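Quiz preparation item.
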């Protein structure tokens, strides 16, 4: 049993969004800009994208899990530590070492990555607004864990060359956690997250094997 209900969870997100306003409006717009950059990469875009992804994971770990979600769930610090670790891995791989490059290719991996990233930026908050009681508690990419995890998996499918597998493990894990939570709390819009996470991870493995064979 979880120590909160779906109503409490979304009410908590409503308070969280109000405290961060206007970031819940700006964050999806920034995510869309990052997706568009994969269509026409520019100089330093890869490091900037890696830095923003790292910042998003660090913020969700500290600002959401440690400082906000911990008020209703005693496991929040564990989740927060995982998100901080993911943020540090992204910062090291994508910013410090410059090992991330994003470029859309019109193949299975590119289209799936594009669709997942777009779903995280637009479809998930839209589903929250339509299926929830109001729009104040919608969960947006860069500020909420589920959308951030799905967006990251989408962008990893849009990497040029091999996608660093170590950057996909924690996002995959979180989609499974989100799916289990959705099942217990009856949050229908989140039930697709574990399926999307597993599919994205399988595609990343396939993508990397194809790159090795070339």
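Solution:
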């Amino acid at each position: 049993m979880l120590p909160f209900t779906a109503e409490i969870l979304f009410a908590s997100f409503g308070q969280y969004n109000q405290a961060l306003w206007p970031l819940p409006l700006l964050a999806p717009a920034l995510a869309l800009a990052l997706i568009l950059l994969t269509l026409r990469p520019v100089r330093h875009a890869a490091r900037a994208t890696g830095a923003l992804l790292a910042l998003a994971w660090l913020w969700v770990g500290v600002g959401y899990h440690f400082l906000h979600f911990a008020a209703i769930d005693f496991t929040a610090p564990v989740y927060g530590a995982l998100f901080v670790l993911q943020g540090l891995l992204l910062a090291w791989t994508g910013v410090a070492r410059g090992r991330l490059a994003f470029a859309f290719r019109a193949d299975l991996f590119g289209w799936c990555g594009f669709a997942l990233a777009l779903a995280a930026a637009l479809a998930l908050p839209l589903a929250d607004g339509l299926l929830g009681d109001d729009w104040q508690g919608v969960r947006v990419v860069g500020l909420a864990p589920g959308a951030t995890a799905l967006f990251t998996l989408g962008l990893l499918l849009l990497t040029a060359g091999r996608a660093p597998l170590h950057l996909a493990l924690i996002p995959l894990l979180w989609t499974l956690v989100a799916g289990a939570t959705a099942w217990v709390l009856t949050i229908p819009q989140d039930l697709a997250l574990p399926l999307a996470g597993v599919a994205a991870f399988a595609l990343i493995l396939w993508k990397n094997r194809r790159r090795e064979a070339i």
